[in-house]
């Protein structure tokens, strides 16, 4: 009768290296996708904040006795004409939006140029 060779239980070095290689490939694919999704979410949040402030500017003007536009973001958070609860911040850097004078006034993102509505 043939004598059976006893093999120790466990994984060989080659098997472990293949598993580590597969995990590394998956991470190399997942990280850029995650970073791109995060960047898109920040851009869309910034655009939503700008639309919210745009709506608040229009609301301020509609509620004004003289039909005047606000002169700054602080005007819209003042107790007398509170159309914004608080001034939103850009999610990309946490900076406050820049006031752009005009008729009607608008805001721009100080952090990134492509965060426009």
Strand and helix layout:
Elements: H1 13-63, H2 73-77, E1 98-100, E2 106-108
Antiparallel strand pairs: 1-2
Descriptive key words:
single chain, 117 residues, mainly alpha, two-stranded antiparallel ribbon, 2 helices, 2 strands
Shape: rod-shaped
Helix/strand-derived category reads mainly alpha
**Largest beta sheet, briefly?**
2 strands, antiparallel
Average pLDDT confidence is 87
Count of discrete alpha- or pi-helical segments spanning 4 or more residues: 2
Low-confidence residue ranges: none
Percent of residues in helices: 40-55%
Rounded to the nearest angstrom, the distance between the terminal CA atoms is: 82 Å
Number of strands: 2
Strand order of the largest sheet: 1-2
Summarize the helix and strand pattern as letters: HHEE
Query: How many domain units?
Result: 1
How much β-strand is present in the residues? 5-15%
Please give the radius of gyration in angstroms: 28 Å
